[in-house]
């Protein structure tokens, strides 16, 4: 079925900060003053929490404070443009996520070109997407879901948090790969989604692990599958991946990444990348990040660049195949 692309507020990991233009710091002197890390959500969001853990540790590694600046609102579009226009000196960086890659294909005319406007510094973390059912549901595994969805057709309902999010596209991806015709129902928040799921208003849902883990641990919800390739979640070791269950193309995970404006000097990018690897390989920091369900990534700038490019191409095809109307 065709789905209209509603005005969405999906969780784009983007923000905004514009600083006066100034010359790039010479190699060896960077950083000479505090760095601003822009986060597009209000304080208290999961992404904000990750950013603050990383920012504090990165500041210690660099010898200069890394200040988190929350700039929520507007779906991140204006924010990304502002950061792209900031001085390419390494003193303004931005934390983006998979939503930014998805957004490149949700508009007839994309509002920005993330690959041309920024240089990747490093990936940071990834977060798992789960297929969920109420513990009271008769749907106990993915096989039950497929069987009932085929029997009910478009009367089988699948909840997601907002149109245009990774949760939405995961639902579309599973729908296509399992050859189903269910109806996707968007909700404004994970809390609204949970209420509908536990009351039986929807059959299953796709949502991130973090907001649902407590409900799973308490027995209110059942996790039927996880979308992270062949790597089960350490927090849910008994939950099989879609790959294990026969759906190898349903490999999905959100990710967070640090970017700097294009033309930031290579030496500055390399210093920031080195600092990020030091932070992400620190056992104490890893433990703090993993405690909320995140998987720690890290890696080279080249690997981060390849991730952005591949994700843009991948989700463009999913959006086209699902016939999601562009804005």
Report on the architecture of this protein.
The chain has helices spanning 46-62, 77-84, 98-103, 114-117, 142-152, 166-177, 190-199, 209-217, 266-280, 283-290, 301-321, and strands at 35-39, 66-70, 92-97, 118-134, 157-161, 183-187, 204-208, 221-226, 253-261, 295-296. Strand 1 (35-39), helix 1 (46-62) and strand 2 form a beta-alpha-beta unit. Helix 6 packs across helix 11. It has 2 domains: 35-127 and 254-321, Bordetella uptake gene, domain 1 (D-Maltodextrin-Binding Protein, domain 2, 3-Layer(aba) Sandwich), CATH 3.40.190; 128-226, D-Maltodextrin-Binding Protein, domain 2. The model is unreliable at 1-27 (pLDDT under 50). 37% of the residues lie in helices and 20% in strands. Strands 1, 2, 3, 4, 5, 6, 7, 8, 9 and 10 form a 10-stranded mixed sheet that branches. By secondary structure, the protein is α/β, with parallel strands linked by helices. The protein is globular and about 65 Å long.
Terminal residue distance: 18 Å
Compute the CA-based radius of gyration: 20 Å
Number of helices: 11
Provide the CATH topology of the largest domain.
D-Maltodextrin-Binding Protein, domain 2
**According to CATH, what is the class of the largest domain?**
Alpha Beta
**Low-confidence runs:** 1-27
Approximate shape? globular
The domain count comes to: 2
Brief summary:
The protein has 327 residues and is an alpha/beta fold. The chain has helices at residues 46-62, 77-84, 98-103, 114-117, 142-152, 166-177, 190-199, 209-217, 266-280, 283-290, 301-321; strands at residues 35-39, 66-70, 92-97, 118-134, 157-161, 183-187, 204-208, 221-226, 253-261, 295-296.
């Amino acid at each position: 079925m065709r789905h209209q692309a509603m005005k969405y507020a999906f969780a784009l990991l983007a923000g905004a900060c514009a600083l006066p233009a100034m010359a790039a710091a010479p190699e060896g002197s960077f950083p000479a003053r505090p760095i601003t890390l822009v986060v597009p959500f209000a304080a208290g969001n999961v992404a904000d929490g990750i950013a603050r853990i990383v920012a504090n540790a990165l500041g210690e590694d660099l010898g200069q404070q890394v200040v988190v600046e929350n700039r929520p609102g507007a779906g991140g579009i204006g924010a990304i443009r502002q950061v792209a226009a900031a001085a390419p000196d390494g003193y303004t960086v931005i934390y983006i996520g998979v939503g930014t890659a998805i957004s490149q294909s949700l508009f007839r005319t994309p509002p920005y070109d993330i690959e041309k406007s920024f240089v990747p510094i490093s990936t940071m973390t990834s977060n798992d997407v789960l297929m969920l059912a109420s513990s009271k549901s008769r749907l106990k595994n993915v096989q039950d879901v497929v069987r009932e969805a085929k029997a009910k057709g478009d009367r089988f309902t699948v909840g997601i948090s907002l149109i245009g999010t990774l949760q939405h596209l995961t639902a579309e991806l599973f729908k296509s790969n399992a050859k189903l015709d269910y109806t996707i129902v968007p909700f404004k928040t994970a809390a609204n989604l949970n209420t509908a799921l536990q009351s039986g208003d929807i059959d299953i849902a796709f949502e991130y692990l973090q907001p649902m883990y407590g409900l799973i641990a308490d027995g209110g919800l059942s996790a039927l599958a996880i979308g992270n390739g062949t790597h089960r979640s350490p927090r849910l070791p008994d939950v099989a991946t879609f790959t294990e269950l026969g759906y190898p193309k349903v490999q999905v995970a959100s990710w967070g990444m640090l970017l700097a404006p294009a033309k930031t000097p290579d030496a500055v990018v390399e210093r920031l990348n080195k600092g990020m690897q030091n932070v992400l390989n620190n056992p104490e920091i890893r433990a703090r990040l993993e405690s909320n369900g995140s998987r720690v990534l890290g890696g080279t700038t080249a690997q981060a660049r390849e991730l952005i490019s591949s994700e843009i191409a991948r989700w463009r095809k999913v959006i086209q195949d699902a016939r999601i109307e562009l804005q």
